Amino acid sequence: MAVTVKISQTSSVSDLCDWIWEVHYTDTRSRDTVRSILKQIKASIGDVNLSEVTRDTVRKFMADREGDAPSSLRRKVAVLMKMFNEGFAEGWMDQVRPPPRPRKQKPNHICLPVEVESKVVARLSEQGPLYAELAVFLVDTGMRCGEALSLRWDAIQDDYSAATVVRSKAGGVRRIPMTNRASKLLAKLRNRKGRVGDGPFRSVIYHSFWQAWRRVRKELGFDEDRRFTPHALRHTFATRLVQRGVPLEAVKTLMGHARYDQTLEYAHHAPAQLQDAISVLESG
Description:
By secondary structure, this protein is mostly helical. The protein is 53% helix and 3% strand. The chain contains 13 helices and two strands, in the order H-H-H-H-H-H-H-E-E-H-H-H-H-H-H. It has a two-stranded antiparallel sheet. Helix 1 (13-25) runs antiparallel to helix 2 (31-45) and helix 5 (114-127) packs antiparallel against helix 6 (129-141). It starts with 12 loop residues before the first helix and ends in a 5-residue tail after the last helix. The model has no long low-confidence stretch (mean pLDDT 88).
């Protein structure tokens, strides 16, 4: 792809926004979100010359967005720092160290009981069979929804025993073994007559899936619980692993967490394991 936006040391942050959009985001699933973030960056610090960008430039942007939720601001700062890191790598500006990011709010996850999961799957099936199958796959693999939607058949073992996530949010590659249920589901989808796309869920439009989920959430009486999202299936996967004695290090690997503290948020679901750890001190 020929890059039409030209950048130099005399360019502005606004110019770098245009460059990063064209080079990294135009064909990604997150393009609509990033487009909005880049617009906010331009409004806040767009007129700053790249040669004048410092840590205070990042602080200025954060101060202008102080009304945002911490999780939202972290995403925006991540895009901003990616811009500046790319600018530094290209030799257009000095390296910028990010200031401390907003503290993450106390984990507010939910784990769906098995009976609720069954109801969700049954109701989603009425909206569209593939929506229900996607929900089952998410709760059995812990994949992020975007990872599952992007999954290609060539990233899945021929015997459907494992799948490889190659574009993880945290970067890197991770291999996820399949449960028997997930393995059988993949085999069914692969052999389904009239299947569409080069992956099991590539034909699913996230917005449509989300709308179907919202209808089911309302039907089941969870409309007021904003934690009750498709992402709750990922939290359910992690919680069930911890509750059944899987070591946190293994959970971290399966979840694709970039930092161990993300996995530690699930530690309180394993009080028995913690008690067993302390009991070691009583032996001998």
